[in-house]
Amino acid sequence: MTEEYDYIIEFKNITKKFPGVIANNDVSLSIRQGEIFALLGENGAGKSTLMSILFGMYEPDQGEIWLRGEKVKINSPNQATELSIGMVHQHFKLVENFTITENIVLGIEPQKSVLGLPIVDIKGTDQKIKDLSHKYGLDVNPTDLIEDINVSTRQRVEILKMLYREAEILIFDEPTAMLTPQEIEFLLEIIKNLQADGKTIILISHKLDEIKQVADRCAVLRHGELIDILDVKTTSTQTMANLMVGKQISLSLDKEKNDPGKTVLEVDNLVIENELGIEIVHDVSFVIRTGEIFSLAGVSGNGQMEIADAIAGLIPVKSGKIKFEQTEITDFSVRDRTELGISYIPEDRQRFGLILEMPLSTNLALKSYYKEPFSRNHILQDRVFLDYSDQLINKFDIRSGQGSATIVRSMSGGNQQKAIIAREIDLDSKLLIFVQPTRGLDIGAIQAVRERMIAERDKGKAILLVSLELDEIMSCSDRIGVIYNGKLQRVSDADLISREEIGEAMMGVANNEQ
Amino acid sequence: MLNNIIIDGLSFALPLLIIAIGGIYSERSGITNLALEGLLGFGAFCGGLFMAFLSSSFTAAQVPVYLSLIVAALGGALYASLFAVLCVVFKANQVISGVVINILSVALTGFLTRQINQNFFNQPSDKFQIGVFPRVSVPFLKDIPVLGGFFSNFYVFEVIILLLLAITWYLLYKTRFGMHLRACGDNPQSVDAAGIEVNQVRFKAVLISGALSGIGGMCFAYSISANFSPTVYMGAGFLAIAALIFGNWRIMPTFVACLIFGFARSAGNEIGKAMKLSSSFFDLTMTLPYVLTLLLLIFFSDTNKAPRALGEIYDKGKR
């Protein structure tokens, strides 16, 4: 560690092209030992590609990488590991039926000899993992199976994997995309611990708050080009946002006071059990009126997703009533509810919202394909699908490679979401259910989705918003219900409740005023 | 009669077990293996051919029967390499490859057996004489009431199979190779990220699968008829697949499943005999293990947990 070098990592004029796209165009940047360096950019700006080059997954077309003052060529992740570079991928690479320890040692298993036979020593390593986990405040139980632990713990296992391999340069690819607000705080704390221990950290993100909170410097990438390198302490998030998007962008939403009308949805004493027969929603009641956005705030796993699913008809309820415009729909099928006027934008858009291997035109007609004019005498009318799809693409500005014929898998997350929203809104339903509608989207797309939601409210739609992002709840809702442990803790007009009060109710602090 | 049920049950259950264990290697690595039937047949064919050549030049007493198991294992592995090339190297659909391997095995061994008998031994036959595998009993233990059946008059290969079972447990659960193999069946991407070649691991797993199936096939040839003939293709490979599925892809539960199948079969046999049924009805009692398969399928399919990446073709480039 005593060698002379100014920067631990230097990218020199890196260019990487993929068929049809320049992912990185002549990017040069240098990272200091021991700093938290953020890479900021929208989806597709080339952040992940640049890091994949550093991690040996891609070879650059042009340019050089210098590590600790020496030019290196990194051909494989193995080689990157040898150079003490570690990466936490966006999609974890863990073996589900292995324990935490087994996952961490996979590929470099310690062995001992029993009766002359080599045996992988897992038990002896558990303690080592436990110590390592304590040192950085990671707090995992080495003997737990991966299939039994949550996303946040899985991520910590990935971090331990790097630390066990003695990585000095740690790359985090969008580490907070799947985490709840509390887990995000926890992770950022860990990242700071790692820095305090002398590690160099590269954080890929498009969340300005996080970058502001932990990073020292920040490089902004747009369309594969390096736009600027900023000192985070002295730069406002507004400036960062503008640089990232390339134009003036508003971080706040224009929303006028709403004018609610008659009740559209009425939920009475709803009780829901999960597959194991455990009650996860207790006695929840609320109403949603025309022209208002009612949101359910809460930490993940407190029953809010189940309430949304039950209203959409995806899961059965144990007791209680769901009424839609005076009609009781508790036992209605999903299709009946759709036809009555309920639209649903699911949390997991790829699994429940779209058929990824099918073209956009088919996906846009998923809720109406069986009706005239899409289907005539039980024969699907391709022409109608295409016309309808072209119309929605224009109306909702859905961008894709080949228009209606694009296979949905190849579209960006933001445009996939736009497609779902287009389909659901165009049904002209009276009630729209949005579950985590901006999850994993970049800043421009987030803004577009929220504006669309408010526009629908202004048209007189009733909207249920379920979100884990407090910011989203605060900026979009007219009324807020906070859920904790399956119970509705409190319901309040949005302008009568503060962020802190919501936070407290989310953590189960009781409230005496109602 | 109880002794007979036990003795016959074991001599069916254990060869079935070693084939199922072969299947476990392959499936735990993520390769769906419907080719067990073909692999066991080809292994038995190789072992049978070896015995036929040796016995034509030596007297029966000198012929080393144990060697035939090794030859069968090599034959099974050789044939499995074809399966591995198809579905690991060329990434062909594993189900279709397995079916093709089975059909090819029946046709190829049938054809070759006739041709070789015709041209080398000058007799038109579809069988190879393979001699008799030694049976032993454990003194004293064999005289215990009821349980004595487990220690009397068993084939030596049954002991060898139990030995292979112990080795498999060690290999799968205690060694690096076993860890890598099981990881490949769960999440090959994570194995790749750990710097291990997924396809290499899977190729080896399929070869082992072939070797063990070959041994199983040879044991069946000895226990059924003392010769190699197309009767070796009696569905044991498929029954082994059923056994490993009931066994949840784990060794000990699969062992239990095989014992159930073995005893159901031998019990069916004894019942048939006791009722003095005509041979056409005999076939009916022999369906007992298969009827049992159907019933177990109904009750156990819910709780089954297949390896997560089973049947998933691993393509390194795809992320």
Summarize this entry quickly.
Chain A has 514 residues and is α/β, with parallel strands linked by helices. Helices cover 32% and strands 27% of the residues of chain A. Chain A has 17 helices and 24 strands.
Describe the protein's architecture and organization.
The complex is a heterodimer of chains A (514) and B (319). Chain A is of the alpha/beta class and 514 residues long. Chain A has three domains: 9-245, P-loop containing nucleotide triphosphate hydrolases (Rossmann fold, 3-Layer(aba) Sandwich); 260-341 and 429-514, Rossmann fold, CATH 3.40.50.300; 351-427, no CATH class. Chain A has 17 helices and 24 strands. Chain A has a six-stranded mixed sheet, sandwiched between helices. Chain A has a six-stranded mixed sheet with strand order 18-21-22-15-23-24, sandwiched between helices. In chain A, strands 2-1-4-5 form a four-stranded antiparallel sheet, with helices on one face. The longest helix of chain A is centred in the middle third of the chain and has 16 residues, at 181-196. Chain A is globular. The termini of chain A are far apart. The longest helix of chain B has 28 residues, at 198-225. Chain B has one domain: ABC transporter involved in vitamin B12 uptake, BtuC. In chain B, the strands form two sheets. Chain B has a two-stranded antiparallel sheet. Chain A binds chain B through residues 76-78, 81, 89, 93-98, 102-103, 106-109, 111, 117-120, and chain B through 170, 174-176, 179-180, 182-183, 186-187, 189-196, 308.
